[in-house]
Amino acid sequence: MTDWLIFVGVLAFVAAILYLPGLAFGAILRLKGVLLLACAPIASVALGGTAAIILGFIGLRWSLASAALCILVMLGGAAVVRRFVPPIEAARPRLPRYALWAVVLGAIIGGMAMAASIGDPSAISQSNDAVFHLNALRFIDETGSASSLEVAGMLGAHQFYPAGWHAIVSLSTTSGAPLTFATNAMSVLIAGPVWTVGVVAFTGAVSSWHARSVAFAATLAPLMLAFPYLPLQWGVLFPYALSVALLPTLLAVIVILARALSGRTGSPGLYLAGSTLGLVGIIGIGLAQPATIQIVLAGVALAGLAVLASRWNSSGARRMSLVIGVGGAVIASALGWLLLSRATSGVQWAPNRSLLDAALNALFNAPIGLAPSIAVSILALVGVVFCLIRGHRWLVAFWAVLVLLFVVAASVHNPFLRSLLLGAFYGDIPRFGALLPVATIPLAAVGASSLTSLGGPRLRRVGGGIAATALVLAAVAQGFVAAASPSRAQGYATTDSSYLSEDEMEVIDALPAEVSADEQILVNPSTGGAFTYGLTGLDAYPRTWSRPDDSDFLYLAEHLKDLSTDSRACRIVADRGYDYVLDFGPGDQTPGRWLMPGLSGFENSSGFELVARSGDASLWRITECR
Q: What is the pLDDT of residues 464-483, one digit of tens each?
């Protein structure tokens, strides 16, 4: 119970970091209500990530004080510019009280379901990528830089790595919050308010802020397994989850601008503010996980075509200007897509199902063996029909693009097509599965709202109440089913057989008492030893889960235990200055893991002294070749 009380405090602190800068930015743009709350996280990530780059460039240490000062300067500049911009009348949607309560309920359910799935505030995701992200947070604390241009230095690389997630979380860890508590708090916020309010804003923009559609969207937001829970359990894909949770907000901005252009109802203030939000949103998502920008570009291209279709009957000159403008937007989006497709290491995952299976998985939102979200998916298909009838074809087209991407990822073998469409996402099927709810939930909300509108006024009231109550109960039930779902192959429980086992955790906890800060520990990254640097701050090598492209390390991975008779192993240890080695077993050969027999079995080897042991996990001091 004490841990949970501490966690609540950490949660509030991380929430303040994630929301306060963005709320201030939104207030400068004179946003209000749901739009203000939706835009706050994406603006905060953009401001925080940019501040980290600026501070890294000028050499100031990353801390709560320096970040706040840098962000205040940026906000001050925005406030000065804003004085010369007209008000934004269209950015103040008003919703009835029941819709607002639905938003609150959806955010709470999503956050609680995520917290329940984590299980313990100090729990660690038992997954490969969790190693990198926890170690990156430790690296930021150690070096004083959260810059996306410097975080890759943890691995000895000098390249851009999107560190928006790390910048936000690290502001709490550098202020004293426990690393695992801060990480889990961010996941709860992503699954709760960030995702729910973003989906509500997107649905509201599509439905012209129809109250029942907004309420249904809020209720449905925490109901689907594919997002927000999948990437926060599988992978674990913390930055990607953040980018996808921010995506609906940016799509809402695109829809608002497109509607204003289509109906010629926009003001200069709306266009300027919307463009500003769009730019800030691109920066925020780009600093979280740039691949998601491809989905934004698809939305921009489709919105441009929708505007062109709606105003095709304009005068010749106006139509020509629209054709030029929309054509430019489509071409720019296509070029941006190509650039992002080639900015990564390319497609790394192969399709694993038939075309029909992939299509059914997409239609019923059941990627990688997850239980299908049948009720929501049926409502979404109903929503497709009503959107086509009522002219909301942009949303249907956008949903179709997401379905197409998933189907290609899951079933198409053509190398050119996979590289073109999937490269930025590594061809990773779960990443595309996590995108489906972005369009499915607004469609389902429109479908549910449209069904409750059939019949007379009395039937609408009764039907709407029954449907709303049923969906609320379903959301609560499936939220907790999601928390306990066995489909989470890589959860947060530390067991005897998990990536970081109980015995290994006990030895790692003992390291600070046995190893000094200037001593180096050799670890097998295919065991729980990979977490050593992140959890203790001690100098451990390697610092990530992947096997380093290092011939000396790979030699020791085969021959360290033969230290007393192997001159090359002895020379490497002396040159590298390794003082200790963790024996957490030889590893395994599951995806992303390797067998390293030389880093295990020191009981019968000379040159090693046992320092600590818990079950099968042990710490050994290297006594030869020093």
A: 556 555 655 665 565 555 54
Strand partners, 619: 582, 612
Burial label, 268 (beta-carbon count in 10 A; 0-12, 13-18, 19+): exposed
**Beta bridge partner(s), residue 578:** 520
Q: Identify whether the C-beta of residue 228 lies closer than 8 Å to the C-beta of residue 195.
A: yes
CB 269 within 8 A of CB 315: no
* pTM listed for this prediction: 0.93
Both structure tokens of 591: 């995806």
Q: ∠ CA(11), CA(17), CA(20), 5° rounding?
A: 115
Q: Distance (Å, rounded) from C-alpha 473 to C-alpha 470?
A: 5
Dump pLDDT digits (tens) for 244-269. 999 999 999 999 888 877 665 666 66
HEC string for 21-60: HHHHHHHHCCCCHHHHHHHHHHHHHHHHHHHHHHHHHHCC
Tokens of 69: 């000062």
Residues 6+ apart with CB under 8 A from 369: 487
Distance in angstroms (rounded) separating the CA atoms of residues 601 and 575: 23
Report the range of poorest mean pLDDT among 40-44, 186-190, 237-241, 420-424: 420-424
CA distances, 270 to each of 93, 262, 273, 330 (Å): 14, 14, 5, 22
